[in-house]
Every structure is written in C-alpha cells, then in structure tokens.
Amino acid sequence: MKEYIAPWEQAFERILTPIEEFIHRQTTSGILLMLCAVTALVLANSQWAEGYHYFLKTYISIGVGEWKLSMSLHHWINDGLMALFFFVVGLELKRELLVGELSNLKAAMLPIVAAIGGMVVPALIYFSLNPTGDRADGWGIPMATDIAFALGVLALLGNRVPKVLLGFLVALAIVDDLGAVLVIAIFYTEQLNFTALIAAGAVLLLLASLNLGGVRKPLPYVLLGLLLWFATLKSGVHATLAGVFLAFIIPIRPKYEPERFLRRANELLKEIGENFRAEPNIIKNYKMRAKVRALETGIHRVQAPAQVLEHNMHIPTAYFIIPIFALANAGVPIEWSELGNTITNPVSMGVVSGLVLGKLLGIAGFVWLALKVGIGVLPAQLNMKHIIGVSLLGGIGFTMSIFIAELGFANSPEDLLMAKTGILFASLIAGVSGYLWLLLNSKKPAPTAN
C-alpha cells in the first residue's frame, strides 16, 4: 500500500507519539492531579493567597435577555465542570453493571463487599469522633476513594503486582463511586424546590423516550442534558447528579450488531477493491469515496453511543476537569504554628482516621470475613497482602472527599478547612504506605531473556 508522507510529517510524529503515549498512561493523570494540588497549596500559602481566593470568588454570568445565571468561578467548577466528571462516572458505572466487572454478581461479590466495608467503617470512625452538632455532617467525607490517584500509585509498581489487582481496585472504586453518588443524593441534598424537581423529572422522561425511540445522535442528549443540569441545580439536589442521571439514559446498544457490520464491511471492502482496480486515484474515483464513507458510517454505527462518549470524555476529564477542580479546591492555608491543633481537631482527626484506618479495617476486614463465610472467591493470583495494599490505597480520598467536604461544610469555613487538611494528610499517608506495603510484599518480576 502506497503511503503519502509529507516532509514534516515524520518529524512531528517523532515528537507527538511519545507525548500521546505519555498522556494515555495510567500514571500521568495522577501526576498532573498531584501537581495541581501542590500548586494550589503553594498559592494558598504564599503572598498570592489573597489573589488566588479572590479569583475563585469572581462571578461569571451567562444570560439571554432578562434571564441570567450568575455564580462564582468556584461554583461553576464544582457545580458545572464536576457534572461532566459525574457524567463519566455514570457511564463507567453503567458499563460495569451491564457488561463489566460488576455484571456477574458472583465474580463481583468480593469487590462489592470490600467497597461496602470501605464506606461503612470510615463513616462510623468519623461519626464516633464527631457524634453531634454540625461537625457530624462530615461523616461522608472518608467514605470516598480517588480512583485516579489510587490507580496511579498502583501503576508505579508495574509488574510487581498482578494485573488482576488493578481490576479488583477498579471494581471496588466503581462501587465506591456509586455509594458516594447515593450519599450525595440522599444525605447532602438541600431544601427541595419541587417545581424544579418536577421539571427535571420531565426532562428525564423526555430523555428516556429518546433512548427508547432509538435516537442515538448525541446532540439531542446534550441539549436536554443542559436543561436537566439547570433544573437539577435549581431543585436543591446537587447539580452534579444530573451528570449521573444523563449517563444512565445514554443508549448502550449500537445501531448495528457486530455480525451485520462485519457482513456489510466485507461487502464494502470488496466493492472498494473493485473500484480501486478501475481507478486507483481516490480523488478521481467518486464511487470508491462513497464506499469509504459508507464504511466510516458503519464503523460509527457499530459502536454504542455510551461507549464512544466515555472514550471521548476520558482525556478532557482526566487532564482538564479534575486538575481544575484540584486547583480550585486543594488550596488549604496551613498554619505550621497551629499544626498541633489542626491534627487534634475532631474533624481532621475523624477524616484522617476514617480514610487511613477505616479504609484498611473496612476493606481488608470485610474481605477477610467474606472469605471466611464463603461469600466470593479471591482471584488465584491475589492474597490478603495484596488486599491490605489496596485497602491502604483506598484511603486516598482527595477528589471525591474534597467534593463531599464542600457540601457537608458549605456553611462552616473553619470545619471545611480542617476537613481539607485532613484529606490532604490522609491521602499522603495512604498513598505512601500503600505503595511501600505493596513494594515490600510483592515479588520482583523475573528478568526477561534476551
């Protein structure tokens, strides 16, 4: 096959290919997230702290005529951009429940039990230290796990850990995300506006009718999704949940079944070959161009819309939305002279104890109990040392924990500061201890023969 290579093309490919490979590595998004968190911390504890916080409080408005929606930049990030993050979370949940790790209940039982333990025990530990008053509202903070950070740390270990451990962590984190979504929807919902809630329900019904009617074009879902987000924002239910609701309605079935696509693709390739023999120049050969376009259409139609959206949204979410969230929310002013008081504060103690100790006892403890009573089976390549390592990594709360802290302590800046400080310390402790545990308790891969 003749290949047309422009003079600069190979040079650009040599430059861009390593960059593209770096972007698609599992560790990269975690590294970027860490850099943004550190940047936010530096800004919040520097001479630019006032400007940093002032910038986040800047109001941004969008409007048409007399109608206007006005929110601070901080709220646009937490209520707007994060709705897209939750949309991707919803797509992942839907895929895992229908065809992924969680579609087979028997195989999924162990990560489900582990995730439940990893949510219940941390919440109980936090609540035991903050049983009354407004501080009790933070019980949901240590329930969460930051999958990007946890997978990034696990990926740093390379071949030292079995690949099945990564699958176990992903399945656990998916259930954990589902739990976090339910907690936000049920326990962190403000006073409800029933008119807006009814409007959101009507939009959901309209979206469902599009799905049932076989509409697979993304534009109608995008437009109605914006309406759903606005109605949810005004309803009192947290606006980010609109992303999850929309994700569960995006069609999961492709227009073409694979058998039909293969049959049609073979026919088209045969016709393209015949057209090529008649006229090899595709610019002159309109019949061949038409067949190539038909093949391209078939390629699009054999892919499920939900699958395509999840793939397309991965890079914007991992490399833009989550880093921006970290920049806006991880800026915690640290008074080193008051560090002792910060560490002993009930909120920060509850968060650190819940994330570090609670995740370890909850995940590893529930897995051990499940195996003892015969609920689920540990994959052949895994042992309890691996589960303990994953339990420690589960204490990296960061993104979702900060998000829940923003909801739970929206009216208590001091408690929010303590919660964020606790999240940062706990995530650091959990990440380092999880990495070192797995490093010391995993076999070094045998060198490959040349």
TrEMBL record:
<keyword id="KW-0050">Antiport</keyword>
<keyword id="KW-1003">Cell membrane</keyword>
<comment type="similarity">
    <text>Belongs to the NhaA Na(+)/H(+) (TC 2.A.33) antiporter family.</text>
</comment>
<dbReference type="GO" id="GO:0015385">
    <property type="term" value="F:sodium:proton antiporter activity"/>
</dbReference>
<keyword id="KW-1133">Transmembrane helix</keyword>
<keyword id="KW-0472">Membrane</keyword>
<keyword id="KW-0406">Ion transport</keyword>
<keyword id="KW-0812">Transmembrane</keyword>
<feature type="transmembrane region" description="Helical">
    <location>
        <begin position="194"/>
        <end position="214"/>
    </location>
</feature>
<feature type="transmembrane region" description="Helical">
    <location>
        <begin position="422"/>
        <end position="440"/>
    </location>
</feature>
<keyword id="KW-0739">Sodium transport</keyword>
<keyword id="KW-0813">Transport</keyword>
<feature type="transmembrane region" description="Helical">
    <location>
        <begin position="139"/>
        <end position="157"/>
    </location>
</feature>
<feature type="transmembrane region" description="Helical">
    <location>
        <begin position="226"/>
        <end position="252"/>
    </location>
</feature>
<feature type="transmembrane region" description="Helical">
    <location>
        <begin position="387"/>
        <end position="410"/>
    </location>
</feature>
<dbReference type="GO" id="GO:0006885">
    <property type="term" value="P:regulation of pH"/>
</dbReference>
<feature type="transmembrane region" description="Helical">
    <location>
        <begin position="105"/>
        <end position="127"/>
    </location>
</feature>
<dbReference type="InterPro" id="IPR023171">
    <property type="entry name" value="Na/H_antiporter_dom_sf"/>
</dbReference>
<feature type="transmembrane region" description="Helical">
    <location>
        <begin position="31"/>
        <end position="49"/>
    </location>
</feature>
<dbReference type="GO" id="GO:0005886">
    <property type="term" value="C:plasma membrane"/>
</dbReference>
<protein>
    <recommendedName>
        <fullName>Na(+)/H(+) antiporter NhaA</fullName>
    </recommendedName>
</protein>
<feature type="transmembrane region" description="Helical">
    <location>
        <begin position="164"/>
        <end position="188"/>
    </location>
</feature>
<keyword id="KW-0915">Sodium</keyword>
<feature type="transmembrane region" description="Helical">
    <location>
        <begin position="76"/>
        <end position="93"/>
    </location>
</feature>
<feature type="transmembrane region" description="Helical">
    <location>
        <begin position="356"/>
        <end position="375"/>
    </location>
</feature>
<comment type="function">
    <text>Na(+)/H(+) antiporter that extrudes sodium in exchange for external protons.</text>
</comment>
<dbReference type="InterPro" id="IPR004670">
    <property type="entry name" value="NhaA"/>
</dbReference>
<dbReference type="Pfam" id="PF06965">
    <property type="entry name" value="Na_H_antiport_1"/>
</dbReference>
